[in-house]
Automatic annotation (TrEMBL):
<keyword id="KW-0946">Virion</keyword>
<feature type="signal peptide">
    <location>
        <begin position="1"/>
        <end position="32"/>
    </location>
</feature>
<keyword id="KW-0167">Capsid protein</keyword>
<keyword id="KW-0732">Signal</keyword>
<protein>
    <submittedName>
        <fullName>Spore coat protein CotH</fullName>
    </submittedName>
</protein>
<dbReference type="Pfam" id="PF00932">
    <property type="entry name" value="LTD"/>
</dbReference>
<dbReference type="InterPro" id="IPR014867">
    <property type="entry name" value="Spore_coat_CotH_CotH2/3/7"/>
</dbReference>
<dbReference type="InterPro" id="IPR036415">
    <property type="entry name" value="Lamin_tail_dom_sf"/>
</dbReference>
<dbReference type="InterPro" id="IPR001322">
    <property type="entry name" value="Lamin_tail_dom"/>
</dbReference>
<feature type="domain" description="LTD">
    <location>
        <begin position="26"/>
        <end position="168"/>
    </location>
</feature>
<dbReference type="Pfam" id="PF08757">
    <property type="entry name" value="CotH"/>
</dbReference>
Length: 845
């Protein structure tokens, strides 16, 4: 028997340690008493939001008054740190009644005739671990101990509980949790059986969305696929709707009551009656949409209340409004490309979105990558008990490269008790966003640039200082690198990856100091590089820390994989030069990064290796032939363009002039403005074919392993050039003291004088003579024309010059001190807080 009765005394804790009962021998009396009937030490999907729970059963003929009863975990109920739970006076458990108690301090809602005065109370605050035990204590001091609860020998994934079998009086594991109901004892499958069963369930969940997305596992349309556009509608309280729309910067959740999917002809395809929740989503996306008066980006969770409720198998979605892609099709087409290429992807489709019958906008609906059925589809051989998916925030870029001025600002604020919450965290502390209007795109960009430089990044540096200037601790503790999915034993692995490949430390020549190849799935990385390079998706790891997740299938291998998402920005905004966009179609395959391969610690170590580079070029050829230039696929995209034409041209950001290029695509119109998708694809396919031919016959002039190298400072490699971009300035101005993070417009050369400048895009300089100033301009700055953009500029130090710090001491020119000495005099730049790259590169916020 597992029941021990004794008087409460000073030796109680010692006695408790002796009476813990091992599962193999657990039994109890089941006649006329209150018993622990079932325990879920790992939670279950059908109760308590997946948290731990314990169930009590009165198996007698009369109600039991619970005054004086307690329940506690293995620390007992007399120790100082005990989290014991005492039942409220007067509470009763009726005859043959079950009481379900969620742990973790959840509120219990109980409305029964005998407990009319106890509509709710807070349940136990303790959790139930595998090595814990439970103590059910009676008013007279006698007690029952049950536990510990190790995993069954066959292993468990979820929905395995430890339950009393009334027919035998013994406790056993069961694979049929029955919270609040009579127990059902069923055989626990083996670990292999459980894994297979879970994978079958996840596959079925995925397949429930095939017709909805019109998108099978190979990225192909299906016979019964839904129309190109459907209507997604939700209903919510008008007061919540007003708060959601009037305070988008908070990105806080509000409940919605119901959701439905309807055809444009009004045919109802799906109705979800249980509540869900909605919030705005993304720093830059929300900021720009609010500033422009454009439809806001959203996240919707359909499974917030009912864990089994899905939208055609999808638990959570993003609604993305393509501010930067006039074609409205990159987010639709690129995931289909990845699927056809056998790569991880998140499915998408187009919807008109309504709240309370009000049309909000025309959106790309995307399944959120952080759902286990999506992971199982992308990595079918994954281990459900040991895997991980990390989301990488773009604010992690440049960690360890902060200037001394930035670091000092953080140190000055270290004791500021008002922060956190940090500005990069969601919440009501985030400042309002001023709406400037749809025709104020540049002004909104400038406003976000200021917000990022003077608010977001300042708080990132503050957090960095508070974490002893350790990137990995900063990112993990503050959620800038966030594990969205998987088991919880990956901290050391991701910390090592952050230390080695996300903290600023360029490779040695040829990246001989990097062991990236040992840490990543080389095939996955090379195939993803091929996709990025061919599609000209430069706003990606090719240029910076942006728009990807890191995945792990199995800890024994420790091979990280890339998962790409967010393809809303065409062109090369992150490379930040007008000339790059003018010759974008000729982007080099052998050096697809913005600067040298050594500057990119996620790309260089692989593409500087002859064997890996050859394999990568093979994937480029495969992707070009089977996907990117596939005639059937191009016809599918063009057909889709016709289907969404009216919706695009009536939406914010769409125009008949630009979209016409999608309907009758001509490769020569790729640079007509906005990079129309189909013309750009056709022109790029022709160019990639020529590049591959030149590589094969040895006629390509430059690049790794092809003879003359690109200069490290060339910001966009045109494969057709036989010589580097000429410049009257040393190193094209890409030297320490000039090529530093913090410029909206990167360092640039005035070829006539050979002087390097750096600056910030400044609309107030419009109309000002080159080199002149406007009233109120900061000391040491002046207006300058750079690549067709007017900027507030400051001359750079000459290479090797010494900067003069504010305290009169000397510091190296790369130290980030706030006052620079030049031949023209001292240029104070303490007031100039610039962003690292063009705002257009931050598409995932």
């Amino acid at each position: 028997m597992t029941t021990t009765t004794t008087a409460l005394n000073t030796n109680m804790n010692r006695l408790l340690a002796l009476v813990s009962i091992w599962l193999s021998a657990a039994t109890t009396t089941v006649q006329g008493e209150l018993v622990i009937s079932e325990v879920a030490p790992r939670g279950s999907s059908n109760a308590c939001d997946g948290d731990d729970w314990v169930e009590l059963w009165n198996n007698g003929d009369e109600a039991i008054l619970m005054t004086g009863w307690m329940i506690a975990d293995d620390r007992g109920w007399t120790t100082p740190d005990s989290e014991r739970f005492e039942f409220p006076d007067g509470f009763e458990i009726g005859a043959d009644e079950y009481l379900l108690m969620c742990t973790g301090g959840d509120t219990m809602n109980l409305v029964t005739p005998m407990n009319a005065n106890f509509t709710s109370f807070v349940g136990p605050t303790f959790g139930i671990g595998a090595e814990d035990s439970l103590n059910l204590v009676r008013p007279d001091g006698s007690f029952t101990v049950l536990g510990p609860f190790p995993e069954p020998q066959s292993g468990s994934i979820k929905d395995i509980t430890f339950a009393l079998d009334p027919s035998t009086g013994e406790y056993n594991f069961t694979s049929t949790p029955t919270p609040g109901e009579p127990n059902i004892i069923t055989r626990v499958p083996t670990e292999a059986e459980l894994i297979e069963e879970q994978k079958v369930q996840l596959a079925a969940q995925n397949d429930a969305g095939i017709e909805f997305f019109n998108f099978n596992r190979q990225g192909l349309p299906v016979e019964d696929g839904f129309d190109a556009i459907v209507e997604l509608k939700i209903t919510m309280a008008n007061s919540d709707f007003d708060l959601l729309m009037s305070n988008p910067q908070h990105q806080t959740y509000f409940d919605f009551q119901s959701a439905s999917v309807v055809t444009e002809d009004g045919v109802e395809l799906l109705v979800l009656d249980d509540p869900g929740r909605i919030r705005t989503r993304g720093d830059e996306a929300t900021f720009m949409a609010s500033c422009l008066g454009s439809p806001l980006p959203f996240r919707l969770d359909f499974d917030d209340v009912n864990k089994t409720q899905t939208l055609f198998g999808v638990q959570q979605i993003y609604l993305r409004h393509p501010l930067f892609d006039a074609s409205y099709m990159r987010e639709w087409a690129y995931p289909r490309m990845l699927a056809r290429f056998g790569m991880p992807h998140a499915r998408t489709r187009m919807v008109h979105f309504y709240i309370n019958e009000k049309l909000i906008g025309f959106y790309t609906l995307m399944e959120i990558p952080e759902q286990e059925y999506v992971f199982a589809r992308n990595f079918p051989n994954y281990n459900p008990k040991n895997f991980a998916l990390f989301q990488i925030d773009p604010l992690t870029e440049g960690c360890g490269q902060y200037s001394q001025a930035e670091l000092q600002s953080g140190r000055d604020r270290v004791d500021d008790s008002s922060t956190p919450p940090y500005s990069f965290e969601r919440g009501t502390h985030v400042r309002p966003i001023q709406e400037l209007g749809a025709d104020m795109f540049k002004e909104c960009q400038a406003a976000f640039a200021d917000y990022k430089a003077n608010t977001l990044m300042e708080d990132v540096v503050l957090a960095y200082v508070r974490h002893d200037e350790v990137c990995s601790d900063t990112f993990l503790d503050e959620g800038l690198v966030d594990q969205e999915l998987g088991s919880d034993n990956w901290d050391n692995e991701i910390k090592n990856f952050i230390r080695d490949f996300m903290s600023f430390q360029p490779c040695d020549p040829d990246c001989t100091n990097s062991d990236l190849a040992k840490q990543v799935d080389i095939q996955n990385f090379l195939k993803m590089f091929a996709f990025y390079a061919v599609t000209l998706t430069i706003d990606s790891p090719l240029s910076e820390v942006n728009n990807y997740h890191l995945a792990q299938e199995e800890s024994k291998e420790e091979k990280w994989k890339l998962v790409a998402y967010d393809f809303s920005k065409p062109g090369s905004p992150s490379c930040n030069t007008k000339v790059c966009e003018e010759r974008l179609i000729h982007w080099s395959l052998v050096r697809p990064t913005c600067l040298s391969l050594e500057e990119n610690v996620l790309v260089g170590p692989l593409l500087l290796n002859v064997t890996a580079s050859t394999e990568y070029l093979g994937y480029v050829r495969e992707f070009l032939d089977t996907v990117f230039a596939n005639a059937t696929f191009l016809e599918q995209i063009q057909s889709h363009a016709s289907e969404i034409q009216d919706a695009v041209e009536s939406s914010f950001g769409g125009s008949a002039g630009s979209f016409a290029n999608e309907l009758s695509p001509d490769a020569t119109s790729w640079d007509a403005g906005g990079f129309p998708l189909l013309p750009t694809m056709k022109a790029r396919a022709e160019d990639v074919e020529k590049q591959l031919a030149a590589i094969d016959d040895g006629s390509i002039a430059r690049g790794p392993h092809q003879g003359k190298e690109n200069e490290p400072w060339e910001s966009c490699g045109d494969w057709q050039l036989s010589e580097p971009d000429t410049s009257a300035c040393e190193g094209g101005c890409k030297y320490d003291g000039c090529n530093m993070p913090g410029w909206t417009v990167e360092c640039f050369c005035e070829e006539a004088t050979g002087v390097c400048y750096r600056g910030d895009e400044d609309l107030s300089c419009d109309g000002i003579v080159d080199g002149e100033r406007y009233t109120g301009m900061e000391d040491g700055t002046f207006c300058k024309l750079a690549g067709g953009v007017t900027v507030k500029a400051s001359a750079c130090l000459e290479p090797g010059a010494v900067a003069v710090s504010n305290d009169g001491g000397d510091s190296p020119s790369s130290s980030g001190s706030s006052r620079w000495s030049t031949a023209a005099g001292a240029w104070p730049v303490a007031e100039l807080l610039f962003v690292c790259v063009l705002v257009l590169s931050r598409s995932s916020w």
